[in-house]
Every structure is written in structure tokens, then in C-alpha cells.
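User: Before I run my own analysis I want an independent prediction to cross-check against. Here's the chain; please return only the C-alpha cells and, at the end, one sentence I can use as a sanity check.
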Amino acid sequence: AFNLLISIKNPEKLSKADYAAWCLHFTHAQYKLYKDIKSDSIIKIAVDYYENSNLESYSSTAYYLWGCISELNEQVKTAMYAYKKADDLISRELLLKSNQVRMKGLINYRISNLLLVDEYYSESETYINTAIRLLKTVDNFKYLAYCHRIKAEILYRQEKPIPTILKEAEICQKLALKDSSIDLYNNILTFK
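Assistant: C-alpha cells:
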């Protein structure tokens, strides 16, 4: 997808709708490929376009990605705002599809991370527990593993009993193996 997107010459000359879609998918592809994204200017085009549309799914995705890019660039307040806005947009739906449940889980995971860094342990734990509950319903083992790793970190910082912390770490490792990703398993073990 990334190669296809970068092959489009002058995407800014596309129609507004097509350019917004290009910006959304381009940012998503960059993020998934761990590209170094220094600016939120491209995703902001998608955010601004979808903000005033009836395409709430695209709008929530744009806000989520804006949050991810902001978090990467250590813009914590902007990241928190974008994640909360994405969550609000998804929460308007009466019946969530599995991809929306997954995104809500990821949003809660990201918010938990931000709160953990700022040492709001109780709030962080609330969000990570919500993320775990949501991601279990869609069998997202990869992010469930990361959630349990974060939960172990929260419990450690709260000075909870070692057996409680180790239980979370063990769940994390089992989920990482279940995902059958050796990179994930190694990242979990080294807390990357």
C-alpha cells in the first residue's frame, strides 16, 4: 500500500475527498511501517476534511492516527485530545463492528500509556482494563499481550504484590507466543 501511495504524483492535486483519503491511508501506511513521522501536517488534512463529514469511521481513524503521531512526537496534550475525540466518534455508534471494538481497545491502550507516563496509575489501570476487555472480544492477541505488559508495569509502579505482577507478565508472554510473532515475544520480554 505504501509503495502504491507514494507512486501517486502530486496527490495534493486530487479532489478534496481523494486527497483526504490519500492523506489518511498514507499516514496509516507510514505508521504501520514504523516510518519516522516528524509532522502531523498530512494527517491533519484528513482530520480537518472528515471532521465536517458524515464519515465518522474515517474521522475516528484520522483522529486516532493524529493521536499516534502526536504521541510519537511527544505532544501529549494533542495526543490525548485526538484519542478522546476518536473514542467519542466511535461511541456514537449503537452497534459496534469488530474493527471499531478493536480501535476502541487500541485507543484505551494508548490513553493508558499516556497516563502511565504522567504517573496517573489508577486512571491508567482503568483504561488498560477497558482495553483488555475490548481486545479480548475481538481476539487481538498482539495488543492484548502489550496491554498485559502495561498492566504489569502499572502494578509494579503501584507496588502491588510480586505474584500479582508476575501473573500479568505470564499472561503477557503466553499471549505473545499465541500471536506467533517472535518479534512481539522479544519486545515483550525486553519491554520495548
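Sanity check: Residues 5 and 25 are 8 Å apart (CA to CA).
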